């Protein structure tokens, strides 16, 4: 059985509307305007950080809101605990995105417990993984979507500059839940390649919604 939400995302773009701590764009109204711009441009869903922004985005757009809650920047920081996950459901997230890497969670919960709690509260779960084994485990633990979000970002693993399309293809061929390509997708061509590799849907963040990082890249290009 496919979920109605999965049908609405199939072959389409999800825009991640986030800004890092200290960035001038990190303001709820600004982030919500990004979600409205994404919707106006044809995005099938938006992905936003923190309950306050989730609640404001849910009120502002008609497309589904994927919520995450980044807490800290080391270890498990994307929706690290059941408490964070349930706060996102409370704020109206249709899908809760959470770290499903093979690392201990700060509240001692398992990923399966987080999935169970989110499902009981009435929302779906996107598992943010970094490897094939984590993706397979997340699917077995009940995740509704598996995203390649954390590939290249787990300490001790190689940093990458290109999207991990091999991971998208390997997971799409092996697991029974939809795979969402996310991370370093910088061009429409790469987004199309991710779909061709088997992704249900593609998340793009920096290349659309991060003027500070994009400006830095142009500045670096002029001086290198
Ligand atoms: C690793 C991590 O914390 N990723 C975060 C997850 O929500 C965001 O910082 C990324 O911007 C997002 O995944 C989209 O990726 P990109 O910005 O490369 O299109």
Helical fraction: 40-55%
What oligomeric state best describes the polypeptide chains here?
single chain
The tally of structural domains comes to 1
CATH architecture: Alpha-Beta Barrel
Which kinds of small molecule does this entry bind, naming each only once? Answer: N-acetylmannosamine-6-phosphate
Strand order of the largest sheet: 1-2-3-4-5-6-7-8
Overall average pLDDT: 97
Q: Characterize the biggest β-sheet.
A: 8 strands, parallel, barrel
Explain what the structure shows.
The protein has helices at about 5-10, 30-40, 50-60, 80-90, 110-120, 130-140, 165-175, 190-195, 205-210, 210-224, and strands spanning about 10-15, 45-50, 65-70, 95-100, 125-130, 145, 180, 200-205. It has about 220 residues and is of the alpha/beta class. The chain has one domain (about 5-224): Alpha-Beta Barrel (TIM Barrel), CATH 3.20.20. It has an 8-stranded parallel barrel, surrounded by 7 helices. Strand 1, helix 2 and strand 2 form a beta-alpha-beta unit. Helix 2 (about 30-40) crosses helix 3 (about 50-60) and helix 4 (about 80-90) runs parallel beside helix 5 (about 110-120). It is globular, with a radius of gyration of 16 Å. The N and C termini lie far apart (about 50 Å). The model has no long low-confidence stretch (mean pLDDT about 95). N-acetylmannosamine-6-phosphate binds near residues 18, 153, 184, 185 and 205. This is Putative N-acetylmannosamine-6-phosphate 2-epimerase.
């Amino acid at each position: 059985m496919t979920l109605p939400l999965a049908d609405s995302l199939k072959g389409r773009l999800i825009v991640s509307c986030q800004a890092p701590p200290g960035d001038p764009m990190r303001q709820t109204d600004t982030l919500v305007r990004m979600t409205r711009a994404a919707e106006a441009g044809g995005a099938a869903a938006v992905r936003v950080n923190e309950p306050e922004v989730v609640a404001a985005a849910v009120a502002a757009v008609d497309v589904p809101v994927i919520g995450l809650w980044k807490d800290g920047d080391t270890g498990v920081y994307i929706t690290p605990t059941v408490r964070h996950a349930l706060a996102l459901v409370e704020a109206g997230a249709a899908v809760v995105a959470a770290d499903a890497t093979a690392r201990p969670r700060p509240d001692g919960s398992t990923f399966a417990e987080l999935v169970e709690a989110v499902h009981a509260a009435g929302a779906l779960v996107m598992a943010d993984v970094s490897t094939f084994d984590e993706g397979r485990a997340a699917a077995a633990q009940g995740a509704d979507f598996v995203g390649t979000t954390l590939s290249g970002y787990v300490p001790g693993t190689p940093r990458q500059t290109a999207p991990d399309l091999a991971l998208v293809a390997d997971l799409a061929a092996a697991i029974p839940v939809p795979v969402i390509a996310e991370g370093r997708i910088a061009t429409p061509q790469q987004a199309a390649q991710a779909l061709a590799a088997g992704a249900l849907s593609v998340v793009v963040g920096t290349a659309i919604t991060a003027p500070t990082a994009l400006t830095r890249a142009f500045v670096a290009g002029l001086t290198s």
